[in-house]
Amino acid sequence: MLIRIVDNINLAEAYQYLQSPTSGAVNLFVGTVRNHSHGKEVVKLVFEAYEVMALKEMHKIAVAAQEKWILDKIVMIHAVGEKLPGEAVVITGASSVHRKAAFEACEFLIDELKKTVPIWKHEFFKDNSVWVNAHP
Amino acid sequence: MELKLFGVAKDIIGSNKLSITAEDFATVGELKQWLSQQYPKLQQLRSVAVAVNSEYAEDNQSLQNAYEIALIPPVSGG
Protein backbone atom coordinates (compact mmCIF):
# COMPACT_ATOMS: atom_id res chain seq x y z
CA MET A 1 0.00 0.00 0.00
CA LEU A 2 1.07 3.54 -0.76
CA ILE A 3 0.04 5.88 2.06
CA ARG A 4 1.26 9.44 2.13
CA ILE A 5 0.73 13.00 3.25
CA VAL A 6 2.19 15.28 0.57
CA ASP A 7 2.40 18.92 -0.49
CA ASN A 8 1.24 18.17 -4.03
CA ILE A 9 -0.83 15.28 -5.38
CA ASN A 10 0.75 13.33 -8.22
CA LEU A 11 -1.93 11.40 -10.12
CA ALA A 12 0.55 9.64 -12.39
CA GLU A 13 2.47 8.29 -9.41
CA ALA A 14 -0.72 6.88 -7.89
CA TYR A 15 -1.78 5.20 -11.13
CA GLN A 16 1.67 3.83 -11.76
CA TYR A 17 1.73 2.28 -8.29
CA LEU A 18 -1.71 0.68 -8.71
CA GLN A 19 -1.46 -0.80 -12.15
CA SER A 20 0.02 -4.27 -12.64
CA PRO A 21 -0.28 -7.20 -15.06
CA THR A 22 -2.36 -9.16 -12.53
CA SER A 23 -4.98 -6.40 -12.18
CA GLY A 24 -7.90 -6.06 -14.54
CA ALA A 25 -9.20 -2.93 -12.84
CA VAL A 26 -7.69 0.23 -11.41
CA ASN A 27 -10.06 2.58 -9.63
CA LEU A 28 -9.02 6.08 -8.52
CA PHE A 29 -11.01 8.70 -6.66
CA VAL A 30 -9.65 12.24 -6.82
CA GLY A 31 -11.08 14.81 -4.43
CA THR A 32 -10.67 18.39 -5.68
CA VAL A 33 -11.28 21.91 -4.39
CA ARG A 34 -14.76 23.19 -5.25
CA ASN A 35 -15.05 26.95 -5.93
CA HIS A 36 -18.27 27.30 -3.93
CA SER A 37 -19.65 26.20 -0.58
CA HIS A 38 -22.97 27.09 1.07
CA GLY A 39 -23.70 29.53 -1.75
CA LYS A 40 -20.44 31.45 -1.28
CA GLU A 41 -17.38 31.68 -3.47
CA VAL A 42 -14.45 29.71 -2.08
CA VAL A 43 -11.10 31.41 -2.63
CA LYS A 44 -8.88 28.60 -1.28
CA LEU A 45 -8.66 25.73 1.15
CA VAL A 46 -5.84 25.17 3.59
CA PHE A 47 -5.35 21.63 4.90
CA GLU A 48 -3.58 20.78 8.11
CA ALA A 49 -2.71 17.27 9.32
CA TYR A 50 -1.50 15.61 12.50
CA GLU A 51 0.79 13.72 10.23
CA VAL A 52 2.06 10.82 12.33
CA MET A 53 -1.47 9.95 13.47
CA ALA A 54 -3.04 10.59 10.06
CA LEU A 55 -0.67 8.07 8.47
CA LYS A 56 -1.49 5.50 11.16
CA GLU A 57 -5.25 5.98 10.72
CA MET A 58 -4.96 5.78 6.92
CA HIS A 59 -2.99 2.56 7.31
CA LYS A 60 -5.75 1.07 9.51
CA ILE A 61 -8.35 1.91 6.85
CA ALA A 62 -6.25 0.32 4.12
CA VAL A 63 -5.85 -2.84 6.20
CA ALA A 64 -9.62 -2.92 6.80
CA ALA A 65 -10.19 -2.66 3.03
CA GLN A 66 -7.79 -5.56 2.43
CA GLU A 67 -9.82 -7.64 4.85
CA LYS A 68 -13.09 -6.83 3.07
CA TRP A 69 -12.02 -7.24 -0.56
CA ILE A 70 -9.35 -9.10 -2.48
CA LEU A 71 -7.20 -6.25 -3.77
CA ASP A 72 -3.89 -6.06 -5.53
CA LYS A 73 -2.82 -2.62 -4.32
CA ILE A 74 -4.15 0.34 -2.35
CA VAL A 75 -3.32 4.05 -2.50
CA MET A 76 -4.29 6.77 -0.02
CA ILE A 77 -2.65 10.16 -0.50
CA HIS A 78 -3.75 13.43 1.08
CA ALA A 79 -2.32 16.87 0.44
CA VAL A 80 -1.65 19.55 3.05
CA GLY A 81 -1.16 23.28 2.69
CA GLU A 82 -2.90 25.82 0.49
CA LYS A 83 -5.04 24.51 -2.39
CA LEU A 84 -6.90 26.52 -5.02
CA PRO A 85 -10.21 25.68 -6.75
CA GLY A 86 -9.74 22.79 -9.16
CA GLU A 87 -6.63 21.41 -7.48
CA ALA A 88 -6.51 17.80 -6.27
CA VAL A 89 -6.34 17.35 -2.51
CA VAL A 90 -6.89 13.64 -1.96
CA ILE A 91 -6.59 10.37 -3.85
CA THR A 92 -7.88 6.98 -2.85
CA GLY A 93 -7.40 4.05 -5.17
CA ALA A 94 -7.44 0.30 -5.43
CA SER A 95 -6.60 -2.29 -8.02
CA SER A 96 -8.06 -5.76 -8.31
CA VAL A 97 -8.58 -8.66 -10.70
CA HIS A 98 -12.14 -7.55 -11.55
CA ARG A 99 -13.68 -4.07 -11.29
CA LYS A 100 -16.27 -4.56 -8.54
CA ALA A 101 -13.79 -4.95 -5.68
CA ALA A 102 -11.73 -1.95 -6.84
CA PHE A 103 -14.83 0.27 -7.16
CA GLU A 104 -16.19 -0.66 -3.75
CA ALA A 105 -12.85 -0.46 -1.95
CA CYS A 106 -12.11 2.95 -3.45
CA GLU A 107 -15.36 4.39 -2.08
CA PHE A 108 -14.78 2.75 1.31
CA LEU A 109 -11.29 4.27 1.53
CA ILE A 110 -12.48 7.86 1.01
CA ASP A 111 -15.60 7.46 3.19
CA GLU A 112 -13.56 6.14 6.11
CA LEU A 113 -10.78 8.69 5.61
CA LYS A 114 -13.32 11.47 6.08
CA LYS A 115 -14.53 9.96 9.37
CA THR A 116 -11.36 9.30 11.34
CA VAL A 117 -8.17 10.64 9.78
CA PRO A 118 -6.92 13.73 11.67
CA ILE A 119 -6.81 16.22 8.82
CA TRP A 120 -8.55 19.59 8.92
CA LYS A 121 -9.92 21.77 6.15
CA HIS A 122 -9.88 25.56 6.57
CA GLU A 123 -12.22 27.09 4.00
CA PHE A 124 -11.50 30.66 2.93
CA PHE A 125 -14.18 32.93 1.45
CA LYS A 126 -13.66 36.54 0.32
CA ASP A 127 -14.71 37.98 3.66
CA ASN A 128 -14.12 35.22 6.24
CA SER A 129 -12.97 31.67 6.85
CA VAL A 130 -14.30 28.56 8.63
CA TRP A 131 -12.92 25.26 9.87
CA VAL A 132 -15.17 22.82 8.02
CA ASN A 133 -17.39 20.61 10.19
CA ALA A 134 -16.10 22.14 13.46
CA HIS A 135 -19.45 23.33 14.81
CA PRO A 136 -22.82 21.56 14.79
CA MET B 1 4.54 17.83 28.51
CA GLU B 2 3.21 19.30 25.34
CA LEU B 3 -0.40 19.06 24.18
CA LYS B 4 -0.52 19.36 20.39
CA LEU B 5 -3.31 21.53 18.99
CA PHE B 6 -4.83 21.53 15.52
CA GLY B 7 -7.50 23.20 13.41
CA VAL B 8 -10.20 25.12 15.24
CA ALA B 9 -8.78 24.04 18.64
CA LYS B 10 -5.55 25.82 17.77
CA ASP B 11 -7.53 28.99 17.00
CA ILE B 12 -9.59 28.77 20.21
CA ILE B 13 -6.57 28.22 22.47
CA GLY B 14 -4.43 30.62 20.46
CA SER B 15 -1.37 28.41 20.02
CA ASN B 16 -0.34 25.19 18.32
CA LYS B 17 0.73 23.67 21.62
CA LEU B 18 -0.04 23.90 25.29
CA SER B 19 2.26 22.95 28.11
CA ILE B 20 0.56 20.60 30.57
CA THR B 21 1.63 18.41 33.47
CA ALA B 22 0.30 14.97 32.63
CA GLU B 23 0.55 13.99 36.32
CA ASP B 24 -2.16 16.58 37.10
CA PHE B 25 -4.68 14.50 35.21
CA ALA B 26 -5.44 10.89 36.07
CA THR B 27 -7.30 10.27 32.82
CA VAL B 28 -8.05 11.64 29.37
CA GLY B 29 -11.51 12.59 30.66
CA GLU B 30 -10.03 14.80 33.39
CA LEU B 31 -7.81 16.56 30.87
CA LYS B 32 -10.81 17.18 28.59
CA GLN B 33 -12.84 18.55 31.50
CA TRP B 34 -10.07 20.94 32.52
CA LEU B 35 -9.63 22.14 28.94
CA SER B 36 -13.32 22.82 28.45
CA GLN B 37 -13.35 24.88 31.67
CA GLN B 38 -10.26 26.86 30.67
CA TYR B 39 -11.45 27.33 27.08
CA PRO B 40 -15.27 27.30 27.11
CA LYS B 41 -15.44 27.75 23.32
CA LEU B 42 -14.28 24.13 23.01
CA GLN B 43 -17.72 23.16 24.33
CA GLN B 44 -19.33 24.61 21.20
CA LEU B 45 -17.53 22.16 18.92
CA ARG B 46 -19.25 19.17 17.37
CA SER B 47 -16.78 16.88 19.17
CA VAL B 48 -13.41 16.96 20.87
CA ALA B 49 -11.25 13.85 21.05
CA VAL B 50 -7.87 13.28 22.61
CA ALA B 51 -5.13 11.19 21.05
CA VAL B 52 -2.53 9.58 23.30
CA ASN B 53 0.66 8.46 21.55
CA SER B 54 -1.09 9.22 18.24
CA GLU B 55 -4.05 6.87 18.83
CA TYR B 56 -7.61 7.90 19.69
CA ALA B 57 -8.08 7.54 23.46
CA GLU B 58 -11.17 6.81 25.54
CA ASP B 59 -12.07 9.11 28.45
CA ASN B 60 -11.08 6.50 31.03
CA GLN B 61 -7.59 6.01 29.58
CA SER B 62 -4.66 6.91 31.82
CA LEU B 63 -2.10 9.53 30.80
CA GLN B 64 0.64 7.74 32.74
CA ASN B 65 2.57 6.34 29.80
CA ALA B 66 1.77 9.17 27.43
CA TYR B 67 4.70 10.60 25.51
CA GLU B 68 2.58 12.52 23.02
CA ILE B 69 -0.88 13.99 23.56
CA ALA B 70 -3.01 15.83 21.01
CA LEU B 71 -6.41 17.46 20.98
CA ILE B 72 -8.46 16.35 17.98
CA PRO B 73 -11.33 18.65 16.97
CA PRO B 74 -13.85 17.37 14.37
CA VAL B 75 -11.87 16.10 11.38
CA SER B 76 -12.63 17.35 7.87
CA GLY B 77 -10.17 15.78 5.48
CA GLY B 78 -11.00 14.64 1.98
From TrEMBL, chain A:
<dbReference type="GO" id="GO:0006777">
    <property type="term" value="P:Mo-molybdopterin cofactor biosynthetic process"/>
</dbReference>
<dbReference type="GO" id="GO:0030366">
    <property type="term" value="F:molybdopterin synthase activity"/>
</dbReference>
<dbReference type="Pfam" id="PF02391">
    <property type="entry name" value="MoaE"/>
</dbReference>
<dbReference type="InterPro" id="IPR003448">
    <property type="entry name" value="Mopterin_biosynth_MoaE"/>
</dbReference>
<comment type="pathway">
    <text>Cofactor biosynthesis; molybdopterin biosynthesis.</text>
</comment>
<protein>
    <recommendedName>
        <fullName>Molybdopterin synthase catalytic subunit</fullName>
        <ecNumber>2.8.1.12</ecNumber>
    </recommendedName>
</protein>
<dbReference type="InterPro" id="IPR036563">
    <property type="entry name" value="MoaE_sf"/>
</dbReference>
<comment type="similarity">
    <text>Belongs to the MoaE family.</text>
</comment>
<keyword id="KW-0501">Molybdenum cofactor biosynthesis</keyword>
<comment type="subunit">
    <text>Heterotetramer of 2 MoaD subunits and 2 MoaE subunits. Also stable as homodimer. The enzyme changes between these two forms during catalysis.</text>
</comment>
From TrEMBL, chain B:
<keyword id="KW-0547">Nucleotide-binding</keyword>
<dbReference type="GO" id="GO:0006777">
    <property type="term" value="P:Mo-molybdopterin cofactor biosynthetic process"/>
</dbReference>
<dbReference type="GO" id="GO:0000166">
    <property type="term" value="F:nucleotide binding"/>
</dbReference>
<dbReference type="GO" id="GO:1990133">
    <property type="term" value="C:molybdopterin adenylyltransferase complex"/>
</dbReference>
<dbReference type="InterPro" id="IPR044672">
    <property type="entry name" value="MOCS2A"/>
</dbReference>
<comment type="similarity">
    <text>Belongs to the MoaD family.</text>
</comment>
<dbReference type="Pfam" id="PF02597">
    <property type="entry name" value="ThiS"/>
</dbReference>
<protein>
    <recommendedName>
        <fullName>Molybdopterin synthase sulfur carrier subunit</fullName>
    </recommendedName>
</protein>
<dbReference type="InterPro" id="IPR016155">
    <property type="entry name" value="Mopterin_synth/thiamin_S_b"/>
</dbReference>
<dbReference type="InterPro" id="IPR003749">
    <property type="entry name" value="ThiS/MoaD-like"/>
</dbReference>
<dbReference type="InterPro" id="IPR012675">
    <property type="entry name" value="Beta-grasp_dom_sf"/>
</dbReference>
